[in-house]
Amino acid sequence: MKENREGIKGWLRPYKYGLPRFAYWLQRWTGVGLLVYFIAHVIETSNIVNGKIAWDKMLELTQTTQGHIILTLVIGMCVFHAANGVRLYFAEGGKGLGKAGRPEYPYNPLSLNNKMKACIWVSIALAALAMMYGASILFGE
Amino acid sequence: MRESNIMKIHYITGISAIILVAIHIMFRLIMPYGASLEYENVIANYKNLPYTIVLELVLVTVAIHGFNGLRIILIELRQGRVWEKSMTWLCIIGAASIIAYGTRTIILASLTGEV
Question: What domains sit in chain A, N to C, each tagged with a CATH number?
Fold first, then answer.
């Protein structure tokens, strides 16, 4: 019998499960995005050991409008991942979680209380503010 | 190592990374952003020992946190002893490689002009 597993397709879908699931999805994607950026950043900055000409050539590639857009997105991913990560520390410690109850219609998840849900929105808002601040510095010069 | 201990490491490296990355970013903002990226200023950063230590710590904590996060995602997608062991070793090798490569950059850049 074929197993009823969606695999990566299920993981890629952010909708259908509400805000906590969306936060889970965003935490995963921002994590993967930040890891890709981190590896690229370590490789990119290694040009410093090849001298001033190599460094300036690398800056010509990265300090462009596209480069600044990517960096702005990285700032947003970083702030959301950090803020939502701190929320998850508390959740892991059992703080901010709802009490267990019978599954009754309309099946609102009891796992997260309103404070936790507000924290998700605050994480998103902080990420948006950081992106605006970052963009003002990157594009302001 | 027990998974609960790995998660403790994940949380400790996560909190450490927030603090260390904040210091790293502040070093880009103590002067105009464009000027902070000039070759001479970046080399001066690498010659500042406390900042070099911060850079190395950023490298180690983010690599461990990032690759362990990737391992968790990969293990969630598929189960099985061989798969889990393979992914664990793949992520250990990935983290060790990026730490080694980044450390090489930090050491060579901090020695620039001295050799």
Answer: 19-140 (1.20.1300.10)
Give residue-wise pLDDT tens across range A12-42.
776 677 788 889 889 999 999 999 999 999 9
Question: Does residue B115 fall inside a structural domain?
Answer: no
Please give the Cα distance from B15 to B22 (Å, whole number).
Answer: 11
In a domain, B106, yes or no: yes
Q: How far B18 CA lies from chain A's nearest CA (Å)?
A: 7
Q: H or E stretch including B28?
A: helix B3-29
Q: Is the pTM of this model over 0.90?
A: no
Task: Indicate whether B98 belongs to any domain.
Answer: yes
B-chain residue closest to A25, CA distance: B73
Q: Which residues pair with A97 in a beta bridge?
A: A112
- Domain containing residue B11: CATH number: 1.20.1300
ipTM at complex level: 0.93
